[in-house]
Amino acid sequence: MSSQHKKIGLDFDDVIIDFCPALISEHNKEYGTSYEMKDMLHFEFEKLWGGTQKDTVDRIVKMYDAPPRINFSPVAGVVEALEILKDKYQFVVVTGRPDTSKNSVVMWLEKYIPGVFKEIYFTNQFHGEQKYTKADFCKMYNIDLFVDDYLPTILDITGKNISTILFDKPWNQAELPHDVVRVRSWKEIVDYLK
Fold it and tell me: In this structure, what are the phi and psi dihedrals at residue 176, rounded to the nearest 5 degrees?
């Protein structure tokens, strides 16, 4: 498998950074709720929280540049996995975050996973005008394999004949096409790429 995948694209939130657990914790503090990860059955969080998509996006954007008191940890195993794989593959980040979060993303990556990512692309997916999808970036920048937790993105990229790995989350539980690989951990990604 390793000879087929030279350039690997990674989503940032919930593939590299453990964003959703921190988002849930902050949401519970701010709004007096008691949600857990297992409750997040929809990527469209307004279906759980109520309100509009704009309300949800506003809450999420507020977290992007959150104060240092909020600890955004790496997804379990990502640091070790990228250390193992970084000499065999070129890694890039393609995130749905807006350009305005560039500084916080770069600072976080430099703190936890320095020197691994050659490029970082922002698609502005839920934050106003989106010029390019993640699938577009994968095509433009010759990404051979993409890892994401959002099933519609995975299906879009797979439709462009690019290999994909779906990182298992409560909101992406559905039957997958035969050419999409589901993983539950970074160890499984390392094993798949060996």
Answer: -105, 150
Percentage of the chain beyond pLDDT 90 is: 60
Long-range Cβ contact pairs of 115-119 (< 8 A, separation 24 or more): 115/86, 116/82, 116/86, 116/91, 117/91, 117/92, 117/93, 118/90, 118/91, 118/92, 119/92, 119/93
Q: Length of the chain in residues, anyone?
A: 194
Q: Sign of dihedral through CA atoms 35, 36, 41, 44?
A: positive
pLDDT one-digit tens code per residue, 158-171: 999 999 999 999 99
| Calpha distance 139→160 (Å, rounded) | 8
Query: Under 8 Å CB-to-CB from 66, ≥6 apart: which residues?
Result: 22, 26, 72
pLDDT tens, position by position, 24-80: 888 898 889 999 999 988 777 788 778 888 887 777 777 766 655 567 899 999 999
First to last CA, the chain: 6
Residue with tokens 């990228």: 82
CA gyration radius, the chain: 16
Using alpha carbons, select from 91, 119, 95, 99 the residue that is nearest to residue 8.
91
What single DSSP character describes residue 65?
Answer: T
pLDDT at 3 over 60: no
